[in-house]
Fold this sequence. Notes:
By secondary structure, this protein is α/β, with parallel strands linked by helices. It has 13 helices and 16 strands. Helices cover 43% and strands 22% of the residues. The strands form 4 sheets. It has an 8-stranded mixed beta barrel, surrounded by 4 helices. The longest helix is centred in the first third of the chain and has 22 residues, at 97-118. The protein is elongated and about 75 Å long. The model has no long low-confidence stretch (mean pLDDT 91). Bound molecules: ligand C2E and magnesium ion (2 copies). The site of one magnesium ion has 5 residues, from strand 12.
Amino acid sequence: AAVRASDLVARSGTDEFAVLLGHLRSAHDVARVARKLAQALTEPYLVDGQEVSLTVSVGTALFPEDSTCAVALFDYAGTALAQAKGRGRGGVLAFEPGMSATARQRLQTEAALRRAIERREFVIHFQPRVELATGRVLGAEALLRWQHPERGLLDPADFMAVAEASGLIAPIGEIVLAQACAFAMQREDGTTVSVNLSPREFRGRGMVAAVQAALTASGLPARRLAVEVTEASFHGDLDAAERTLTGLRDLGVRVVLDDFGTGHSSLACLRRFPVDAIKIEGAIVRAATENAADAHLVRAIAQLGHGFGLAVIAEGVETEAQRRQAQVCGCDEAQGYLLGRPLPAEAWAEQSPA
Ligand code: C2E
Ligand code: MG
Ligand code: MG
């Protein structure tokens, strides 16, 4: 009803539609119609007496300015749509040539990630977590690396965004879980192992089942596994986050709130979502030896954590002064290059923390 009878409207995917507009007087008309369509679709719907609202993102491409090839035009509109989605809810974006280079690169990384899963190119490095009072190693954090055939050993920063956006993080996460559980099983000293979960993984429907499956397959007792999530996991669909959190804790798995001190709503987050430990972001821990404000922050976070009955972990400790400061500020445990670098499981046994 929002377009002319001569325009073509089609469904092109689960939640994707294509609209072909003809006889436009100017490029401005495209944006105008796109906004009109988006507005029409965002009117609340009544479903079983419940009001449901949608947000709509739109990408557009123009004939003949962007291309005279129908396939390319459709592709470009898709590229613009992907960018519009990436920018957040409800945007209308016109295709620009620069977009396709970015999109192509993304697609290449995605294809390479698929191959990496098949060819088992992922390796896990483990970094010790140390009790500050005694220097005892309490456990290890599993950190993902990609042994890329041409580019060498890659950090999560090089590929995690694409893994997340493409959904490939789910199979990759299962690899990490399996290897982390196997690592903990090989150690007889009761070492616990923690695995990072990205927000998308955490909120995914299958998370609790995947963790349960990894525990069962490895035989690792649940209390020796922890998951690390950032507070971004608790944004958006709060109920989904709560279900996962409850499901994991019911299994007996510990939950650590990672990168604490960097987000926007840490305090409210702690109230609604019960966790077992908080891990203070490394930059704050390191700055605590440099200025009083950060030292104060670390001390306050430690106090807050203890008030909630949580263990407080300082991350990213690189010097003896930083280790001492973290301890003075009340942190219970620490990780960092000073105490042990992330290393492959084979090399881990020989490493002796300071
Ligand atoms: P994170 O969980 O906060 O991990 C801490 C990061 O700090 C790691 O970077 C670690 O190598 C690094 N680090 C450790 N000690 C020190 C230190 O003393 N100084 C400094 N400057 N850095 C230190 P990495 O391995 O590159 O991982 C980055 C992030 O990627 C992680 O942050 C985590 O959010 C994510 N990540 C890592 N592995 C996985 C995974 O298996 N799955 C998911 N979803 N995310 C992962
Ligand atoms: Mg972590
Ligand atoms: Mg962290």
